[in-house]
Design goal:
19 helices, 7-stranded mixed beta sheet, 30 strands, single chain, binds 5'-O-[(S)-ethoxy(hydroxy)phosphoryl]adenosine, Rossmann fold, alpha/beta, 2 domains, 634 residues, globular, GMP Synthetase, Chain A, domain 3, 8-stranded mixed beta sheet
């Protein structure tokens, strides 16, 4: 059994050990896993290149740690309880034994279709158990999965496929979301027109909509698995062999492929899952994220399944067919642990208490949040009306790049404070620095959040471009991993995450680079240039505010129609999640004499705080500030 923390004293003891002897600390935990060959050395690292290796020369397969390690005790226990978008469709329950066989069968299928260790596979699926099966089948044979959220556009998918040189794509005919269904295969078809690397597409039948199957390239999932054995030998993987790539937005350029490797990610996701949630056998855990995001990877698939947990997976949306659907699912499946995003809480809170009242919610023991800062009001609502004032809330701060939770309470152990992620988990050494990189010591300070020592699931590189990884995360402050987040530490040493300090915005818990949204808007033929900033949004946390300069001959167009048309372009280039909430047309953007857009001013206008815009005399065109203020209603 994995190290478990049971008390606050236990936490401080473990934390101390993890800092004074990190290698001994993680080795003890890693010992509880199933290795084909033990490591020679626990850790090699420097943050300058960066080069980080955990459990050096260890040999293992992560799926053997999910299945073989547990099958004697857990074979008949539910691994996945799947809840359909449609409440009238039966739930599906897969035991560990059944999941094991399905993973093996699909792993054999991938091999039959030419997939080998190290090949990259794109997964573009709705929230169905086959998404987990596909990921684990890749891991079983050493293929590297790149899951792409099925709300991304064909162009975004094509960019990700090309960047990783994906050989095979796994998708479905379509997906259900609330009252609507969407074609997915048609999006994949459009994407792969631009991707000569793709050889095969495996298509799961989900909605039954007709799709154009191209001979030799496209195969139905159910046909492909038909003659495959349910026995499959796991590939022997090195600790540092790549497990997956997951694309995420940064402040510049296109999304980058964050790379996670096998052993460190495995050890860290299970350790954090068990200790943060205080999961016990028999508990029913539900994380409402999508497998297309890191939360889905680490805390729907790997962490909980490594821990032998029972995981609820939900295909639909919180408001269909009614706004009490989340609460209905909690009662139906007797969920004990519920993990969701603040944006979902705020959206459901807005419907009042009527949709909550019909449900008992008495199975709940622990609540969690992730993805963005949770405001105190939403925290209290969640605590009082969902947790009935008896369930601890774990506000977990972490990132795609960190692979697992970093700063978080341990459920029922760490005293919580609304809006605070509280204390670093064992193994995590945060450091707050000022803009020059000087450490701000002591408590009650505010600055930029860095981490000074590696933990097992830190990203290793950005796929195909190591220099970009170095520059983005390890060059801002020498010798430190820079998170991109601002943070405050209070008198008790508790951490409160303040949000991004770079040009990344967090919309409904989804990360978007402002440059990425601007590039999408600029693809509109009538747009000359644009600037995108975030602004506070009651439900989404942050909304997207776009200042757009049209081509000269377009300024006579009807602004409403132009807005729709810009939205359609963003939809096409990125997907609906990046659609601006507000679009303001202006004749120019405020720029410095060297031609840089003064975002600070636009941010203030977007936030509605125009009383003090600071010094604008250095601008090339100070007069546009007045024009923009007026257009924005000030
Ligand atoms: C933000 C999601 C405040 C933060 C797991 C981070 C949070 C970014 C929290 C990473 C939290 C995540 N409180 N902010 N509990 N959790 N964030 O990569 O700005 O999608 O840098 O990973 O989300 O987003 P990502």
């Amino acid at each position: 059994m994995l190290n478990r923390i049971h008390s606050l004293g236990g936490y401080f003891h473990e934390y101390q050990k993890s800092v004074s002897d990190p290698e001994g600390f993680w080795a003890d935990i890693a010992e509880t896993f199933f290795w084909r060959k033990k490591w020679d050395k626990v850790l090699n690292w420097n943050f300058d290149e960066p080069k980080i290796e955990w459990f050096v020369n260890g040999k293992l397969n992560i799926t053997e740690n999910i299945f073989e390690r547990h099958l004697f005790t857990h074979a008949d226990q539910a691994a996945i309880i799947w809840e359909s978008n449609n409440p009238n469709e039966d739930s599906r329950i897969l035991t560990y034994q059944e999941l094991y066989e399905k993973v093996n069968q699909f792993a054999n299928t991938l091999k039959t279709h030419g997939v080998k260790k190290g090949d990259r596979i794109a997964i573009y699926l709705p929230m169905v158990p086959e998404a987990s099966i596909a990921m684990l089948a890749c891991a079983k044979i050493g293929a590297v999965h790149s899951v792409v959220f099925a709300g991304f556009s064909a162009q975004s998918l094509a960019d990700r496929i090309n960047d990783a040189q994906v050989k095979l794509v796994i998708t479905a005919d379509g997906s259900y979301r609330g009252a609507k269904s969407f074609g997915l295969k048609s999006i994949v078809d459009e994407a792969v027109e631009k991707c000569s690397c793709v050889e095969k597409i495996i298509v799961l039948k989900r909605t039954g909509e007709s799709t154009n199957m191209i001979e030799k390239r496209d195969i139905w999932w159910h046909d492909a698995i038909q003659n495959e054995s349910t026995v499959c030998k796991a590939e022997l993987m090195d600790s540092e062999d790549m497990l997956f790539i997951l694309y995420t937005s940064g402040s510049t350029g296109k999304p980058k492929g964050v790379v996670h490797t096998t052993a460190g990610y495995m050890v860290y996701t299970q350790y954090t899952f068990q200790n943060v949630f205080q999961y016990n056998q028999g508990d029913i855990y539900w994380c409402s994220a999508d497998v297309g995001w890191v939360t889905g990877h680490s805390y729907i698939v790997y962490g909980p399944l490594l821990a032998g947990a029972t995981v609820v997976m939900f295909e639909g949306v919180p408001t269909y067919p009614h706004t009490g659907r989340f609460w209905e699912i909690i009662d139906k499946h007797k969920v004990t642990h519920f993990y969701t995003a603040p944006t979902a809480i705020r959206a459901l809170q807005a419907y009042g208490l009527e949709p909550v009242k019909p449900y008992k919610l008495d199975s709940l023991k622990v609540l969690g949040t992730v993805g963005e800062p949770i405001n105190a009001e939403a925290w209290h609502w969640y605590h009082t009306h969902i947790g009935k004032s008896k369930c601890p809330i774990v506000d977990t701060w972490w990132q795609t790049e960190t692979g697992g939770m970093m700063i978080s309470p341990l459920a029922g152990i760490t005293p919580t404070k609304p809006a605070y992620a509280t204390l670093p988990l064992p193994g995590i050494q945060p450091m707050i620095v000022d803009s020059e990189g000087k450490e701000l010591t002591g408590n009650a300070v505010e600055g930029n959040l860095c981490i000074k020592f590696p933990w097992p699931s830190i990203l290793r590189t950005t796929y195909g471009d190591h220099e970009r990884c170095r520059q983005t995360y390890f060059s801002t402050y020498k010798g430190l991993y820079f998170t991109g987040d601002g943070v405050k530490r209070d008198e008790d040493g508790y951490y409160r995450i303040l949000g991004r300090v770079d040009d990344v915005i967090n919309v409904s818990g989804h990360r978007l680079g402002t440059a990425e949204v601007e590039n999408a808007i600029n693809e509109h033929p009538l747009v000359n240039e644009s600037a995108v900033v975030g602004f506070p949004h009651d439900i989404k946390g942050q909304g997207i505010y776009a200042f757009v300069v049209l081509e000269r001959d377009a300024s006579t167009h009807d602004p409403e129609k132009m807005r729709d048309s810009v939205n359609i372009t963003v939809n096409k280039v990125i997907g609906a999640i990046a659609r601006p909430d507000k679009i303001l047309f202006c004749t120019a953007l405020p720029k410095t004499r060297s031609g840089k857009i003064m975002r600070r001013i636009l941010r203030k206008i977007a936030e509605g705080d125009v009383s003090n815009l600071g010094d604008i005399t250095t601008l090339l065109n100070p007069e546009v500030v007045e024009e923009i203020k007026k257009a924005a209603g000030f």
